[in-house]
Amino acid sequence: MTPDPLNRLVAELAKLPGIGEKTAQRLAFHILRAPPEYARDLSKAVLEVVEKVRLCSRCFALTEADLCPLCLDPRRDESALCVVEGIADQMAIEKTREFKGRYHVLHGVLSPLDGVGPDQLRLKELLTRLEDGRVEEVIVATNPDIEGEATALYLTRLLKPMGLKVSRIAQGLPMGGDLEFADPATLARALSGRREL
Known about the structure:
Blueprint: H1 4-14, H2 21-33, H3 36-52, E1 54-55, E2 62-63, H4 69-72, E3 77-84, H5 87-96, E4 101-105, H6 123-130, E5 137-141, H7 146-159, E6 165-168, H8 184-192
Parallel strand pairs: 3-4, 3-5, 5-6
Antiparallel strand pairs: 1-2
Helix pairs in contact: 1-2
């Protein structure tokens, strides 16, 4: 018979995205075998993130203050704004250290079948940010799936009339990938997005 506290821990861990019951059990047993300080530190970290982390009031990334460090950084290029679906996408782009502009996190994509329309995304806030005229180019960095493409098209139609340059991140083959294993849609996208050397 499994003790109730362990069952409750497994049940709570299994609620996390991508965590099934077997993985939840492994995590619970790991916590149980670790020194008590580990469990205390883990619970403190979970509570601290829930209590202290919130959305930046400008770009809607995660922060502990009203504005995130990227919005406060005077070295960032205010003329370029990269629009992403979620915080993980913003973090992935930032890890490349290639983009020096600012971000705007939509917190989703258009998906009428799931009941997600323009009003469920941070589009009003995006339009408000663009009113001051500092942004010259909006880079749409949504995923290359149906919803991401629909969102990119919607943004293009919304922003082009404002006189802004609207661009889309390039899509195609991953570094180290083999042409023979690429799906036709990815290969077609890579060919159409080619550039001169």
